[in-house]
TrEMBL record:
One of its GO terms (molecular function) is tetrahydrodipicolinate N-acetyltransferase activity. Keywords: Acyltransferase, Transferase. The keyword Transmembrane does not apply. Residues 177-196 are annotated as: Disordered. It comes from Marinomonas spartinae. The keyword Acyltransferase applies. This is 2,3,4,5-tetrahydropyridine-2,6-dicarboxylate N-acetyltransferase. Its EC number is 2.3.1.89.
Length: 196
């Protein structure tokens, strides 16, 4: 990983967390146990603090940042989808932020909530637990169902497992010129949700 100290403040990564070598960590970033940070993610703690609580994940090409004095928090089992942007906000425990969604300054996403892909959550927006947010600007559509929460938790467990898989078996390599005759396949348990 590209890791940078600034103004004497060094990122912290728990030994059980996995941060991809192409991710960038700057300054006041705290990544707790069992977390996953994907390829191309950028966590810039050069103004405010960024904390990833236990077993949360930040996927490929996400950006996490905040204004001076802010504290961006991703709660335990928080799940931040590909390309999402978090800026000075709080993501509640066991919540999902969909792909390419944006959550702005001082927004507070309640626990077990889902922010739909490409949603835009305005500054200072706040919602209760188990809120389903969609649109631009994001609005409360309804409560997250038990089935949706279970789907989210299954996906998060896959990323918790991926953290272990990466720590144990991911290594840089050269590509093959053609597939092997007995090429293995990856076996994971993640499934897409049913239509809402």
């Amino acid at each position: 990983m590209a890791c940078y100290k600034i103004d004497g403040v060094t990122p912290v990564v728990h030994p059980t967390a996995y941060v991809h070598p192409t991710a960038v960590l700057i300054g006041d970033v705290i990544i707790k146990q069992g977390c996953y940070v994907g390829p191309g993610a950028c966590l810039r703690g050069d103004f405010g603090r960024i904390t990833m609580e236990e077993e949360s994940n930040v996927q490929d090409n996400c950006v996490v940042h905040g204004f001076a004095g802010s504290h961006t928090i991703i709660g335990k089992h928080g799940h931040i989808g590909h390309g999402a942007i978090l800026h000075g906000c709080v993501i509640g425990e066991d919540s999902l932020i969909g792909m390419n969604a944006v959550v702005m300054d001082e927004a507070n996403i309640g626990a077990e909530s889902i922010v739909a892909a490409a949603a835009f959550v305005k500054s200072r927006f706040s919602c209760d637990a188990r809120s389903l947010l969609m649109g631009s600007p994001a609005r409360l559509v309804r409560q997250v169902s038990d089935e949706e929460l279970k789907w989210k938790q299954t996906g998060t467990q896959e990323y918790i497992d991926l953290t272990t898989r990466c720590l144990e078996s991911m290594v840089e390599c050269h590509p093959l010129t053609e597939p092997e005759a007995d090429r293995p396949s990856l076996k994971t348990g993640y499934h897409k949700p049913k239509n809402n």
